[in-house]
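README, section 4: Worked example with a bound small molecule

Sections 1 through 3 covered apo chains. Here we extend the same pipeline to holo records, where the ligand is supplied as SMILES alongside the sequence. The molecule in this example is pyridoxal-5'-phosphate. Nothing else about the input changes; the structure line simply encodes the ligand pose together with the chain.
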Amino acid sequence: MDTSHILYGFTDLKNLDSHGPIVLNKAKGAYVYDTKGKKYFDGNSGLWNSVVGFDHPKMIATAQKQYEELSGYHALFGRITEPAINLTNKLIEVSPFDEGKVFFTNSGSEANDTAVKLLWFMNWHKGLPKKRKIITRYNSYHGVTVGAASMTGKPYNDVFGLPLSDFIRSACPHYWKFGKEGESEEDFSLRMAQDLEDVIAKEGADTIAGFFAEPVMGAGGVIPPSKNYFQLIQPILKKHNIPLIADEVICGFGRTGNLWGSITYDIKPDMIIASKCITSGFFPLGAVITGEEITKELMDASYAAEEFPHGFTAGGHPVGCALALQAIDIIIEEKLLENVRKLEPLFMGGLKSFEDMEFIGEARGIGLMGALEMVQDKKTKKPFDGHMNMGERVANKAIEKGLICRPLGPSIVLCPPFITTPEQIDFMYSTLKETLNEVFNEIKISN
Ligand SMILES: Cc1ncc(COP(=O)(O)O)c(C=O)c1O
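The generated complex, written as structure tokens:
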């Protein structure tokens, strides 16, 4: 096939030159197949999102039925479709909020941008035009649009001249990596909270519009928060009147074993960003869910301005909304949350056993999301040289053996679908162990 016309995103092009892309054309359950008929267990659920099975018959039937009834319509100017209304009601029902509103987007990035604009809009109405700054954490991932990329705390956005002004950072609560020698995890979390206090003091609380956090940092390399982190920072945000927005794009709908990462970590957000598992990868859809207080302020601002001047052509698409309703029903009715919880000990226990390997520095995760971070020296936690491409080497070899896992810097990320079986976890780990042994032997020989 002529693949010369695709402009790849987030792809190591030099590495791709030697391997070529994997072209997929079929999927069944938790497996995908390439055009040569090779079968892969997808240890990454597509991109964290295909969790109910790629070919779930109810999802396919729902899409077919909705396309036959009403194939597409927007959700603007007072027009709306039944599936979009039903989904707003469902999302409020399953959200931690008693009351609230839902704004639909096509992606997680757009949902984050939308949430920033909501905050700015409310503050404009309250006569607080200087209350604009957005705090996120170093190493966080919030997406790629200009706003969401400005929120993302990764150095690779330097090439775009981002972040924009008004986007500022606080520390990343990764104890294994950033804890000081002799510092307990509890003390580390206190230091993280103090860092946030310091950022707020430096910038001025009256200039800060909101604090966005993923309950577990996903694309940062699966980093669960350090002990008590959210319990320590929430009172600080409250004291300074700074809304907390939970970016649940990865954690939402079950990844951590509860419907929301906010439940798992006892976070009381003012707003939630959702996407990915919301349609189990069957349709692009994102949502901003506003809690009681923000909803009220937002409605006041909307009446004052006559409208909230924002919206996407395909936001609230009826097929996407019908699929989201179906995906949420499947997750709840087919007891997939229970399956995530049931598998967690096997998943996490198996993951932790990799820490016995010579070059595995940390195995971390929760629910059905985990990462193995490779280091050159376990004692000093010295990372491998970037040019050794350890993550890519492992992922490429695993793929040859029929396992899809994702390289993320020095880490290998695993986040299998919610329908995964214990046998599939065994396959995933035995394949990965074999792969790592081979790669580690190669580097020992070349040294
Ligand atoms: C936490 C988080 N927020 C936002 C996004 C952006 O979502 P999208 O890729 O749909 O724009 C992602 C994507 O991985 C994410 O993990």
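What to look for in the output: The chain has two domains: 13-55+335-446, 60-333. The two ends are 38 Å apart (CA to CA).

Section 5 describes how to batch many such records.
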